[in-house]
Amino acid sequence: MSVTPSSAETVEIPAVVDGQGREAARPGGLEALAVSAWFGDHKVLQQVSLRMPAGEVTALIGPSGCGKSTFLRILNRMHELVPSATLSGEVLLDGEDVYAPGRRLTDARRRIGMVFQKPNPFPAMSIYDNVTAGLKLTGVRTGRGERDLLVEECLTKAGLWKEVRDRLRQPGGALSGGQQQRLCIARSLAVRPQVLLMDEPCSALDPTSTRRIEETIRELADEVTIVIVTHNMQQAQRVSDRCAFFLAAQGTPGGIVEHGPTGAMFDAPQDQRTADYVNGRFG
Ligand SMILES: Nc1ncnc2c1ncn2[C@@H]1O[C@H](COP(=O)(O)OP(=O)(O)OP(=O)(O)O)[C@@H](O)[C@H]1O
């Protein structure tokens, strides 16, 4: 289903004002309520509830296979791309269920963008066209001047503009891995998402590129709600405001053991399993 230009162009989200004219909660808050997930009859998530506040970075941490990526993909309706995949529960974006009947799939995916583990720009497409690729897919029509401004804005926000402004017509595939990942971030930003999901975005990158992406994440957090899966505990501490620790005991579906402000999760975890995990005693 395509988004009509008229609906997709209303991408600027005005400040929410309550009945007394005061500015209300920031838009972009995401909340999962009692989310369970299955692949066929294999249940992989059990009743996961988590608030991911607007304007903050939430890190999902936990050992391999406990359902972090599945949970992330449920947040923007990518889970349903797997034929055998099912789920129950609710995902609320600004209080509205993204799975509600009548809600368009493309609307959820535009408002909740995703950056993957391996940078996936269109390799033969120019840097410029990579950034604007999402606009075409969502049916947004813009003029050339508007597109030029958008490309500069998104590449600047992704921390890539200065490195590529003189070679916007070169292919995206010619960039380094770290630059390609920042190009993918710029591409995600072009459709003005309220939330950006990042699934181990630095795991394929060298330490310098990783730090550059981490800076970008912190800079973006002011305007986009970010949810990031990471196996790197130092990274979780550097970039996130809040953490959720996922765990799946042998043969059981994954769930959240503990969540809260990142400082507290690392310095004073409530659950011994969290303490053991964040201190590298397992996982
Ligand atoms: N497409 C799929 N089909 C069937 N089972 C799947 C699929 N994707 C994931 N799973 C299963 O769901 C469970 C959770 O996997 P998931 O990738 O969400 O965990 P994770 O915590 O993100 O792991 P990792 O940290 O290794 O990426 C695992 O048992 C996995 O084998």
**Count of discrete alpha- or pi-helical segments spanning 4 or more residues:** 11
CATH superfamily of the domain at 28-121 and 194-278: P-loop containing nucleotide triphosphate hydrolases
H-E order: HEEEHEEHEHHHHEHEHEEHH
Helix content: 25-40%
CATH topology of the domain at 28-121 and 194-278: Rossmann fold
In spatial order, strands of the major sheet run 6-7-8-3-9-10
Strand content: 15-25%
At CATH's second level, what is the architecture of the domain at 28-121 and 194-278?
A: 3-Layer(aba) Sandwich
Molecular shape: globular
Query: On the 0-100 scale, what is the average pLDDT?
Result: 90
Classification by helices and strands: alpha/beta
For the record, the CATH class of the domain at 28-121 and 194-278 is Alpha Beta
- Work out the radius of gyration: 19 Å
Bound molecules: adenosine-5'-triphosphate
The count of strands amounts to: 10
Low-pLDDT stretches: 1-16
How would you sum up the major sheet?
A: 6 strands, mixed
Report the end-to-end length measured between terminal Cα atoms: 41 Å
Organism: Streptacidiphilus cavernicola
GO molecular function: ATP binding
Keywords: ATP-binding, Nucleotide-binding, Translocase, Transport
Pfam families: ABC_tran
